[in-house]
Design brief:
The chain is of the alpha+beta class. The protein has 9 helices and 6 strands; from the N terminus they run H-E-E-H-H-H-H-E-H-H-E-H-E-E-H. Helix content is about 50%, strand content about 15%. A 4-stranded antiparallel beta sheet has the order 4-3-6-5, sandwiched between helices. A two-stranded antiparallel ribbon has the order 1-2.
Amino acid sequence: MKKMTQLFSVSLTLIVFSLTVTFAQTPPATTPASPSAQKGPVPPAADDPIVATVDGVEIRLNQFMQAYNQNLLFVSGKKVTKERVLNDIIHREIGLKKARAEGLATNPIVKAKMDDVLYHAQISKDLEAKLAGINVTDKDAEDYYKNNKEIRTAHILLRLKVNPTKEEFDEVMKGALAIHFELKRKPEAWAELANKHSQATNAAQAGDMGFQPALNYAPEYYEAIKGKKVGYIAPPIQTQFGLHIVKVLGIKEWKDADPVLYKKIVYDQKRDKIMEQYFQELRKTAAIKINKQHLK
């Protein structure tokens, strides 16, 4: 079941991507339907002849050429040929026929994944124009970076259960505070204590995380070190991973940062704001009731 879920996740992620490309490149009125979705035989048109048939399902030239042209947009390890693209379409029709015969459309995993496809396709359709209009300048990226600099840190991690009892939390916190106290007394012992106590995978490297963008850190982790000087050792910080003792090893200035990365980050923020506004409007059309007692 787990393997099946992973297979559907990969395949349907590609479908969502394909839908986004379709919305972005092809007006809805000219998007050809899947051959197997067409109802009844369609008389061959002079400008849209039949390229192949699969158990009576016709593959028309327009649909075939659209698939071929879209394949040319992407680089892969195999050369794009018309024969290869046609075989892909034929295999798809054979696979769809088998899936329908076996009733796969009623499988709960498939239905859930298809709901994901519909969800993302609707967003792509509704927000295509607004998302295409997002503009990010060099100044936007630099202004963002001023408040979200890349920081190189090392950490000592003591793991906690997802929902620890008070006793479990107190016990781990006691150990974290003892380590922090020892580091305040003897900062040069960082590597030794990290190697001895940290439960992170990089303990042998003294917990060195390297330079990371702010969004690569848990929010609590970054806020605890934001604006601090090199050498600062933060008291224990709780994240979803456990308790961290964090040391600031370096701070990267804008001139050394990657502007392309930060323009992408700012783009994502602007996109998320558009999405938030979109759902605020949609929520007005829905009857929503939340039982907050279950959120405590």
